[in-house]
Amino acid sequence: VQLVESGGGLVQPGGSLRLSCLASGFNFKSSVMSWFRQAPGTKREWVAAITSVGGGTDYTDSVKGRFTISRDNAERLVYLQMNNLKPEDTGVYYCKAGPLRSDGRAYWGQGTQVTVSS
């Protein structure tokens, strides 16, 4: 299983970024995919999730109306579109797969840094 995030960077408050996560090594279409983030000195927190069937989505309250999670099953990609970014959105963003049906485990990418600052 491999998850590779990309798309992070430095952006001013009010700006936008789109994160991508390229997945391989497992049945992507059947797996719930999630985004988490971790700011310095804090615990990793859940941000958004998208189901395997139907593409149902859910978000933590602080990003509702600003972030959108989506997936492209053909390309094995999951996205996080982030609009109206705030300084408190700063952190390392991680893609998570699963827990997978195949082994009951969850897998993580290496993370991509998002910094919101003027």
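^ that was protein a. below is b, sequence first then the tokens
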Amino acid sequence: EVQLQASGGGLVQPGGSLRLSCEASGLTFDDSDMSWIRQAPGKELEWVTSINYVAGDSYYAESLKGRFTISRDNAKNTVYLKMNNLKPEDTGVYYCAKEAYDGAYYYTSWGQGTLVTVSS
């Protein structure tokens, strides 16, 4: 059974930083493309970023480039999301997911989510 355990969320002031972690088990992590997806209160899911397993190439939602950084440590089966200069609109539940592609991107496994609240 694939398990993705996200952590690191919390309350942070605008302009602050957080680093989220997602530890994976039950899968071959270094063969897995991984993503972060978020959901703001009352809004739909929004793809944030992905990192592939081949060369660690990363991809970002255009609006988040320069503030968010995804990385992975295959030895620890963990993917990270470093978020800088956080804004109130970054508030939401952040999910890590295992990404797949079959003509379109989809997610085969999801973590439980970690809540990020950006507020003064």
